[in-house]
Design brief:
It is a single chain. With about 300 residues, the chain is mainly alpha-helical. The chain folds into 2 domains: about 140 residues, no CATH class; about 140 residues. It is built from 16 helices and no strands. Helix 5 packs antiparallel against helix 7 and helix 9 runs antiparallel to helix 10.
Length: about 300
């Protein structure tokens, strides 16, 4: 009975499911389900863009490079324009300190992102021609020194306030790519590396949930791309299962909060620490409960993001 239950869930091994996935209707249903699954963590526009781009890139290999480039940077620019990027929050706080209108945040952020894209395009082209240069061999250290230099310059009182704001705005725009750029440069120097256009599409790609590359970069995708329609259908069925399982994990995480925090009154870790500092009773028990609950919720959160990331 247990084996039968597992067989029903193993849709990627079922020939009818594999055949259905290779039809237009099957793709439409899969895309709709994937968008719905991603909407638990992403905005509708972001989930739709990610799913459509992933389907186009997988089913139209000749379009893969321009699709990756367009989807990745469209996500970045739309995130700024719609105010869903943390860069905008940083810029607004910076403008308030500088006593400048916060309405300038989107315009400055967009301009800095354009400048950054241009500089990264030129920089990657330069590195491809000079793979043995120090910057090419030590990309993270070079980038770190560059950021430190900019931060030191932005803190000099002799620099005009608007110039300092623009320097900080550039740093804020660069920070989401601080781990992706070294990984991209490393792949660019490898034998058989992708084109500059493709590499730019992997700089904090549209499927990424954060600022850290998870190893699903150009080298990984070159190695694991589906070789035929059947393999692609199997891969997409596995991806759909991951996205749906991520939503089950989200429900479990929410259930933990409702049960332990709302009904049993278990505090957060910060709340437990405050209670201990204030000398309240039973802090040891609630402190350990808070720590275990926080660990359980955080582990669920990591699993959720990993499932969503790999699924897309």
């Amino acid at each position: 009975m247990k084996q039968d239950w597992r067989d029903h869930l193993a849709i990627e091994a079922s020939e009818p499911w594999i055949a259905a996935m290779q039809t237009r209707l099957g793709l439409a249903v899969t895309g709709t389900l994937a968008i719905g699954a991603l909407q638990t963590r992403l905005e509708l526009w972001e989930a739709s863009l990610a799913v459509v781009a992933a389907l186009l890139a997988s089913h139209r290999p000749g379009w893969r490079a321009p699709v990756l480039l367009s989807a990745t940077w469209l996500t970045a620019f739309l995130g700024l324009g719609l105010g869903s990027s943390e860069t905008i929050d940083h810029l607004q706080a910076l403008l308030e300190i500088a006593k400048l209108p916060t309405t300038m945040a989107v315009g400055i952020g967009t301009a800095m992102l354009v400048v950054l894209l241009g500089l990264m395009t030129a920089g990657l082209s330069w590195i491809r021609k000079r793979p043995q240069a120090w910057v090419s061999r030590q990309p993270f250290l070079a980038l770190l020194l560059f950021e430190i230099s900019l931060a030191v310059l932005a803190n000099q009182d002799v620099v005009p306030i608007l110039t300092r704001v623009l320097i900080w705005a550039f740093i804020f725009s660069l920070m989401p790519y601080v781990w992706y750029l070294p990984a991209t440069i490393t792949d660019l120097r490898a034998k058989g590396g992708d084109s500059i256009v493709t590499q730019l599409g992997y700089l904090r790609p549209f499927w990424s949930p954060g600022h850290l590359p998870f190893g699903k970069g150009p080298a990984f995708l070159r190695k694991h791309l589906a070789r035929n329609p059947r393999d692609l259908a199997i891969t997409q069925l596995k991806a759909l299962k991951l996205l749906l399982w991520a939503n089950i994990l989200i429900a479990i995480r929410s259930g933990l909060s409702v049960l332990f925090e709302d009904h049993l009154g278990v505090p957060s870790v910060a709340g437990a620490i405050d209670a201990a500092l204030n000398g309240q009773a039973d802090t040891i028990l609630f402190g350990w409960l808070a720590l275990m609950l926080s660990t359980a919720k955080f582990s669920r959160q990591v699993a959720i993001w990993a499932h969503l990331f790999v699924g897309v």
